[in-house]
UniProtKB/TrEMBL annotation:
Residues 30-283 form the ABC-type glycine betaine transport system substrate-binding domain. Residues 1-22 form the signal peptide. GO terms for biological process: choline transport. Coiled coil: none annotated. The keyword DNA-binding does not apply. One of its GO terms (cellular component) is periplasmic space. Gene3D superfamilies: Glycine betaine-binding periplasmic protein, domain 2, Periplasmic binding protein-like II. InterPro entries: ABC_choline_sub-bd, ABC_Gly_betaine_transp_sub-bd. It comes from Paracoccus seriniphilus. This is Glycine betaine/proline transport system substrate-binding protein. Keywords: Signal. It comes from the Bacteria. One of its GO terms (molecular function) is transmembrane transporter activity.
Length: 313
C-alpha cells in the first residue's frame, strides 16, 4: 500500500513538473493576417508579430487592400485582422457578420478619428468645414487627396462627389497610397498651396503637418470628426482551434500615444514595424502583464517570460 502511495505521489510530482500545453493545434503555428499598407496597422501588426514569434508562432503578414483583405478573412485565406475601423468599414463588417464565420475578439483602440482635413494654407484660406471647400475650389485645384484605390474612405469621398454634396460634384478624388498622399500634401505645404486630404489619428502626420480637421462631414465619416474605434476580428474556426493565440489577441489592446510613437519610428526613422515594436515593448515591459495573462508559448511554457527574454536581448 505504501509503495502504491509513493508511486502515485511520484507520478503527480512528475506531472506537475511538465509544462502546460498551449492547447493549440499544430496547424496554429503559422498565424496568417493582413494589413492594407497603412502605417497604423503595420505598427499593430508588428507588435503582434513580435509577441507571436517570441511565443513560438510564425506570423505570416500579407499586404492586401481593404476589400481584398476582408475577402481573404471571409474565405479562410487569413486567420485574423487587427484593423477593422468602425464606422468607416461598417459595410465590410456587416458582410462578415452576415457570413457568420467571423467573430470580434476585442476593441483594440478607442479615441481614433478619420475624416477630411486641410493643411495650414487651406485653413488660412478660411476652410474649416466641408461646406467651405467649394468656394475655394481654384486654390485647391479641385482635388481631394485620398489613400489607396478601393479604400472605404475613398468610396465615401467619391460618393460625396457623385452626389454633389457641398457643391463638390466637379471636384476630383486623387487616389494613391498613404505615403504618396502625405508626400503630396507635404510638397503643397512647402509651396504654400492649400490641400484637402484624408487625415486620421493615431498618426505622426498630426505632429508633422499643421492639420485642421473639417467639421460638417458627419454624414460621410461620422460625428466627432469621424470618431472611430478599431477592432480585432478572427475566423471562428481558427479561434476554436487556436485558443492560446486567440487569448493573446483578446488581450492585445493599444492606445493613441503608443501608436503615434510606433508610427513615428516607422515613418520618420525608417524602422521595420517589428523592430519598432520590439524596441517599444522593451521600454514598456509593464504592458506585457495584461497582454500575456494566461498565455503560454506554443510548447506550453510561460508566455511572459519568453517574450521578455526576446525583447530584452
Amino acid at each position: 500500500m505504501r509503495l502504491v502511495q509513493m508511486t502515485s505521489l511520484a507520478a503527480l510530482l512528475a506531472g506537475a513538473a511538465l509544462p502546460a500545453s498551449a492547447d493549440d493545434a499544430a496547424s496554429c503555428e503559422t498565424v496568417r493576417y493582413s494589413g492594407p499598407g497603412w502605417t497604423d496597422i503595420a505598427a499593430t501588426n508588428g507588435v503582434a508579430a513580435v509577441l507571436f514569434e517570441a511565443l513560438g508562432y510564425t506570423p505570416d503578414i500579407a499586404t492586401l487592400s481593404v476589400p481584398v483583405g476582408y475577402e481573404a478573412l471571409k474565405n479562410g485565406q487569413t486567420d485574423m485582422f487587427l484593423g477593422n475601423w468602425l464606422p468607416a468599414q461598417q459595410k465590410f463588417r456587416d458582410d462578415l457578420d452576415a457570413n457568420g464565420g467571423i467573430e470580434e475578439l476585442v476593441q483594440n483602440l478607442e479615441g481614433a478619428k478619420f475624416t477630411l482635413a486641410v493643411n495650414k494654407p487651406g485653413a488660412e484660406a478660411g476652410v474649416a468645414d466641408f461646406a467651405d471647400l467649394d468656394a475655394h475650389k481654384d486654390a485647391f485645384d479641385g482635388k481631394i487627396y485620398g489613400i489607396e484605390p478601393g479604400a472605404p474612405a475613398n468610396q465615401s469621398i467619391q460618393a460625396m462627389i457623385e452626389a454633389d454634396d457641398f457643391g463638390l460634384g466637379d471636384w476630383t478624388l486623387v487616389e494613391s497610397g498613404e505615403q504618396a498622399m502625405l508626400a503630396q500634401v507635404g510638397r503643397n505645404e512647402s509651396a504654400g498651396t492649400p490641400s484637402v486630404f484624408l487625415a486620421w489619428a493615431p498618426h505622426p502626420m498630426n505632429e508633422a503637418i499643421d492639420i485642421t480637421y473639417l467639421s460638417g462631414g458627419d454624414a460621410q465619416f461620422g460625428p466627432d470628426f469621424g470618431g472611430a474605434t478599431v477592432h480585432t476580428l478572427a475566423r471562428r474556426e481558427w479561434v476554436e482551434s487556436c485558443p492560446n493565440a486567440a487569448r493573446l489577441l483578446r488581450q492585445l489592446t493599444f492606445d493613441v500615444p503608443m501608436e503615434n510613437a510606433l508610427m513615428g519610428d516607422i515613418l520618420n526613422d525608417g524602422m521595420d514595424p517589428a523592430e519598432a515594436a520590439s524596441a517599444w515593448i522593451a521600454e514598456h515591459p509593464e504592458r506585457l502583464e495584461a497582454w500575456l495573462d494566461g498565455v503560454t508559448t506554443l510548447d506550453g511554457k510561460p508566455g511572459i517570460e519568453a517574450v521578455k527574454e526576446v525583447v530584452q536581448q
